[in-house]
Design brief:
- With about 1200 residues, the protein is mainly alpha-helical.
- The protein has 49 helices and 14 strands.
- The strands form three sheets. A six-stranded mixed β-sheet has the order 7-6-8-12-13-14, with helices on both faces.
- The two termini are about 80 Å apart.
């Protein structure tokens, strides 16, 4: 600090001007000379001479002393610096810096010390620069820059040599500062300083090559930062000029290495193979001049290895990769643990091992590569190259073993790589491609469209950044093609966006055109291209496309060695599948034989855990099925069933792959095998949805589950004559999202009695998992797509889920808890009919049935032989169209009545006839539990709708339930006040919500409810805040809402209704636990509307209220007419009270039961009908629950 302070004083010091000196002189008065003065002067002259001699002696002595001190310190500094360069000891460089600092302090105050001060500052900057290279302390670079700048100020103007040295040093430390900060202005100043230094060394000067090489290095860095090829060309020009200069202070090895580095960069940009060949030749010359033992030998050897690996990627010569691996291994063995170059050496060797793994999978090599990369990252600040290699290794291990942790770690590292400073335009495309690879891998697991949307965004940016002609251009094109391919099949089962698939095929063709026939990675492009073509062939059945698929797969198999690598297995699998398809097209037995032979010859049995083995088993099973049907060999059928079973149970494969295999199995199996396949498929469907924490993501994942899986499983059980199993399968496969959340709210009272600690642990884990599930999936995607809390949430969720599963196993190991949270058996499900029959409908592709469940009786099966699935789908589509017409005010009542009549004739009339035969009295309650598209149809309003003929509302009182378990919970007597003397009602009314149309009639509705209910807490207009409403839900058994409601068809969990200050969403209600809640009347639009994408999931507000604890809910299927609100609300309140004309002046006269809600709604809607209210208005209201 003292030295820096003195430097500041030196920079601020200004010599007095001549004018100032003149003025000072004039101000002095000239004295008058007297004789006495002359006499005194003569007498004292000897004394003055003695004083002058003494002063001269003092000056000489002081100068010698200062110079001696300065000289001694500089000599010591040089010795310690020389020893540092030999040993690398940090003590030596620290001592050298200290000596040079003291040397400067000694001489900077004397006039003759300017050149010596310059020398001390110059050497001090060099020492600090060397220490920075060892410790990477930015303060050393900052001080070195300061010392160089001061040295330039105090350096004598005639001393051009020192000017040159200082400028060179300043340019070097500025470049080092840029490498840490990424500030382009520092690099630009470094270029300016090096240009100034070059101007001081004309052509022929021995120091000119030094400036040229420094300038070349700066221009190369400028190209890396900006992507401007002009900088790279100037870097090459400077390097080549340096090669032509006579030998000087810079050895030829340094010049050759710099030129080779620039040529490698240009090859990476333009794919000019000659540049790469020249670079390799230069590196070989360097190694000839730098034998083993030379300090730069390891670095040069490593550079040669990198260039050879690059040539291997271009030409596919195995000798290049072998030599590159040998180079990397030798460099790693030569470098000590503390050497600065060791970090990159570790990364390069890991890259070579990974290339060997891609060529021929070896688990030990892959694990060693990952270990080396982790060691490299531990040695300093992560660099994008090492992170890129680590991502590739993690994804490779994920492909081989299917370990989700590897994919999550790769995702985390890929986002970290985009933050590495400085991430230059030449590095960013690779970082973006790595992130896209991770997003595609996660999409294959979760089927979340957000991942593909983000992937397309990033890979499009990467394509824009990659220069035309770059050898990596094909990678970005191929990745974008892969994104479009998976985007075209968002459901996972069929092409939903064919235009995206066409784009994918075009991109893969372009990528393939950029690769030479013998390039190793051509096989990757061939398989990707063939995959897209085969997907389109399955839709188009174009024989020419199938032939192209087979040709490309054969070429890919030729390029790939016959190993257990993922790519070879994928190519072979695709080839066999396409040969099987060609056999089905042309019936050429040779195609079938070749397909079977390829699968059998490469089938490794059960010894391997490769994830792709499951798909191989599935395809071989399908081939055996074809062979069995052709030859009648029953043994082949049995083999196929066993292969399907092993594929479904292959633990290394992803859950989604196993689910798809199980679905294919259900198509090819029969009898008990088929029923078992359906059971496994439903089990895997439940497990698949648990992969991701957020319930909104799980909704997207539902698209990967075949839409008719549950219905077909139930039909299979019914065909086998097992009606009870059919009911169990239906309960297991419907409303998966609500069922999974319900597992986190399982009652633990019995467990708390004997194992309170285990119960507390399970409850804590369940609450955390529920919070993770309900939290809406969100991530912040900036311009670089970096900050994503999603990955952190996923990792945390996985650990919580594993702990929850372990705790669940402990609970099930206890006596009496063996069936805890297992699929509910029929004996328990039958309790759902304790208050009346439950009508279960099942419409599948194979058969249509109705099951009537009655408590204490065997289930009644009613086959609907004349009803087909497509008929119900058409009916649901027609009703959806009518609802859309209602929103626009163009109601077509004849069509609506026709739909209700069709429902009556095809479904409901058979139910009514059966109920009457079974002795179920008219006017009693029944519950509908519909499946698939029947869930979106108004079964409760079906009827002939003709004069003097009763409709269903005239015969029975209908309610709905999404599952039998939900009805059992709603019917439970626990936490209910069967007849409350005075239930408090929360009334939320928002007739004048901001920016919304006024709801007419709400004032009358409020008045009627307040008149009939003695205890009403009203939240009107600005009183109805989100906080007040949520608090009210927690403190009231009954609630009544009159407000605007909005359905989000693309995101049903985003259903919301408008309050005064903001919207209250479905996701805001779900987290609440309302154990004492009983009845909810929701006079808003779409509160019970079924999501057409997932009709079996019952994702609407009424279902959410049931999940939170409400046992009885009245809602609407679509938009409600404002005049109907007060009428229906008043009639419902009136008829929920025992004694229609009861007096309400005393609480003792009031008896209210929430179980009267369905009867009250039935009465209210029939009253609307008798008043002439149009049919589309009164069929809108539905009752759900007990």
């Amino acid at each position: 600090m003292l030295l820096l302070f003195r430097l500041a004083q030196l920079e601020e010091y200004t010599a007095p001007s001549e004018e100032g000196l003149a003025n000072t002189t004039e101000e002095r008065a000239t004295p008058r000379i007297r004789p006495i003065t002359i006499l005194i002067t003569l007498l004292t002259l000897p004394l003055q001479m003695v004083a002058l001699i003494l002063w001269c002696l003092y000056y000489v002595f002081t100068t010698i002393h200062i110079f001696t001190r300065y000289r001694l310190r500089t000599i010591k500094a040089k010795k310690r610096m020389l020893r540092y360069l030999q040993s690398g000891s940090s003590e030596d460089v620290d001592a050298a810096i200290s000596y040079y600092q003291h040397a400067f302090i000694v001489v900077h105050t004397v006039e003759w010390g300017r050149s010596h001060s310059t020398f001390a500052l110059y050497n001090l900057a060099i020492c600090l620069s060397k220490r920075y290279e060892q410790r990477h302390n930015l303060q050393d670079v900052d001080e070195a820059i300061t010392y160089c700048r001061v040295a330039l100020v105090i350096c004598p103007s005639v001393d051009l040599d020192y000017h040159f040295e200082i400028l060179n040093t300043l340019g070097g430390v500025l470049k080092k500062r840029y490498e840490e900060s990424g500030d382009i202005s520092e690099l630009q100043e470094a270029i300016i300083r090096n240009v100034e230094a070059l101007s001081l060394r004309p052509h022929g000067h021995s120091d000119r090559p030094l400036s040229l090489i420094n300038l070349s290095s700066c221009f190369e860095a400028h190209y890396s930062h900006t992507g401007d090829p002009t900088g790279l060309e100037r870097a090459i020009e400077c390097g080549q000029e340096a090669l032509e200069c006579p030998p000087g202070r810079v050895d030829v090895c340094t010049i050759l290495s710099q030129v080779a580095s620039c040529l490698s960069s240009r090859h990476h940009r333009t794919a000019a193979l000659q540049d790469l060949e020249d670079a390799i030749q230069y590196y070989r010359k360097v190694l000839e001049l730098e034998p083993i033992g030379h300090p730069q030998y390891p670095v040069s050897k490593g550079n040669l290895g990198v260039s050879l690996a690059a040539r291997y990627e271009r030409l596919g010569d195995e000798r290049d990769m072998e030599e590159a691996t040998d180079c990397a291994r030798e460099v790693l063995n030569l470098l000590p643990a503390v050497h600065p170059a060791r970090r990159m050496a570790l990364s390069n060797f890991a890259s070579c091992l990974l290339a060997q793994v891609w060529k021929q999978y070896n688990e030990n090599d892959l694990e060693e590569a990952i270990h080396l990369l982790h060691e490299s990252l531990s040695l300093g600040t992560p660099d994008s190259t090492t992170l890129s290699h680590l991502i590739a290794c993690l994804l490779t291990r994920y492909d081989q073993k299917g370990n989700r942790e590897d994919m999550e770690e790769a995702m985390r590292v890929s986002r970290q790589a985009l933050l590495c400073p400085p991430l230059t335009p030449t590095d960013r495309p690779e970082a973006l491609r790595n992130l896209v690879s991770c997003l595609i891998a996660r999409f294959s697991q979760e089927n979340n469209p957000e991942d593909i949307s983000e992937a397309i965004k990033h890979i499009t940016e990467a394509i824009d950044l990659v220069p035309e002609g770059s050898p990596d251009a094909w990678k970005a094109l191929a990745q974008l093609g892969s994104c479009f391919r998976v985007d075209s099949m968002r459901t996972g089962w069929e092409i939903s966006h064919p235009e995206q698939l066409d784009k994918a095929i075009d991109l893969h063709r372009r990528a393939l055109a950029l690769l030479s026939p013998e390039q190793p990675f051509r096989a990757v492009a061939l398989v990707d291209y063939a995959n897209c073509l085969f997907v389109r062939y399955l839709k188009s059945e174009d024989p020419q496309e199938l032939e192209e698929v087979i040709t490309n797969c054969r070429e890919a198999c030729r390029l790939l060695p016959a190993t257990s690598s993922r790519l070879h297995m994928e190519a072979e699998l695709l080839l066999s599948a396409s040969l099987h398809s060609r056999y089905e097209l042309f019936s050429n037995i040779k195609d079938l034989d070749e397909a079977v032979s390829a699968m059998e010859s490469g089938y490794p049995g059960e010894a391997t855990s490769h994830p792709a083995l499951a798909d191989r088993m599935s395809l071989l099973a399908q081939l055996y099925i074809t062979v069995s049907g052709l030859s009648g060999q029953g043994s082949r059928y049995d083999d196929a069933m066993q292969l399907f079973q092993r594929g479904v149970e292959h633990s290394s494969a992803s859950v989604l792959s196993r689910l798809r295999i199980a679905t294919i199995w259900t198509i090819h199996a029969s009898g008990t095998w088929q029923l078992y396949a359906y059971q496994k498929a439903l089990e895997l469907a439940n497990r698949y949805l648990l992969i991701t924490p957020a319930i909104t993501s799980r909704l997207n994942m539902l698209q990967s589950i075949p839409p008719s899986l549950v219905q077909n499983a139930v039909a299979c059980a019914l065909s086998a004559g097992d009606c009870k199993l059919a009911i169990e399968l239906l309960e297991q496969g419907r409303t998966l999202l609500w069922s999974q959340l319900s597992r986190y709210r399982a009652p633990l009272e019995d467990l708390e009695v004997g194992n309170p600690d285990l119960a507390a642990s399970f409850l804590a884990l369940s609450q955390q998992l529920e919070t993770s599930a309900i939290r809406s999936r969100s991530g912040t995607i900036g311009t670089s797509g970096i900050h994503h809390p999603i990955e952190d949430d996923a990792k945390r969720y996985r650990k919580l889920s594993e702990a929850w599963e372990d705790t669940l196993k402990q609970i099930r190991s206890l006596e009496g808890f063996e069936t805890f949270l297992r699929p509910t058996p029929f004996s328990v499900l039958q309790r759902a009919a304790s208050h009346g029959p439950v009508i279960i409908t099942n419409i599948s592709t194979d058969r249509s049935d109705i099951i009537i469940l009655r408590n204490g009786f065997e289930p009644i099966l009613l086959p609907l032989r004349d009803v087909r699935k497509k008929d119900i789908d058409h009916l649901a589509s027609a009703f959806s169209g009518e609802v859309a017409m209602m929103r626009s005010g163009q109601v077509q009542r004849p069509k609506l009545i026709a739909i209700l009549r069709r429902l009556w004739d095809d479904v409901v009339k058979h139910v009514v006839d059966c109920l009457e035969r079974a002795g179920v009295r008219r006017g009693s309650r029944i519950w509908w539990c519909p499946t698939s598209q029947l869930a979106s149809l108004p079964l409760h309003a079906a009827g002939p709708h003709k004069r003097n003929q009763p409709n269903l509302p005239d015969l029975y009182i209908s309610s709905y339930t999404s599952t039998l378990s939900a009805l059992i919970r709603a019917s439970s007597e626990e936490n209910t006040s069967a007849e409350s003397p005075s239930p408090r009602l929360l009334l939320v009314a928002q007739p004048n919500a901001p920016q919304e149309e006024k709801i007419e009639g709400v004032t009358d509705e409020i008045a009627q409810i307040q008149r009939m209910m003695p205890s009403v807490d009203l939240l009107l207009d600005d009183e109805g805040t989100v906080e007040a409403v949520v608090h009210g839900l927690l403190t009231h058994r009954w609630v009544h809402f009159a407000c605007h409601g909005y359905q989000n068809r693309s995101q049903p969990f985003e259903y919301h209704f408008r309050l005064h200050n903001q919207s209250l969403r479905l996701l805001d209600i779900i987290p609440e636990r309302l154990p004492h809640a009983e009845f909810a009347y929701w006079a808003a639009c779409h509160t019970a509307a079924i999501d057409e994408r997932a009709p079996d999931e019952a994702i609407h507000l009424a279902a959410a209220l049931q999940f939170c604890g409400f046992k009885s809910v009245i809602g609407t299927m679509y938009a409600m007419a404002d005049p109907d609100g007060p009428v229906v609300a008043g009639e419902v309140c009136r008829h929920m009270i025992d004694g229609e004309e009861a007096s309400y002046s005393s609480d003792d006269a009031l008896k209210i039961n929430f179980r009267n809600a369905a009867e009250a709604l039935n009465y209210a809607t029939r009253k609307l009908k008798t008043k002439g209210v149009p049919i589309e208005r009164w069929i809108n209201f539905v009752h759900i629950g007990a």
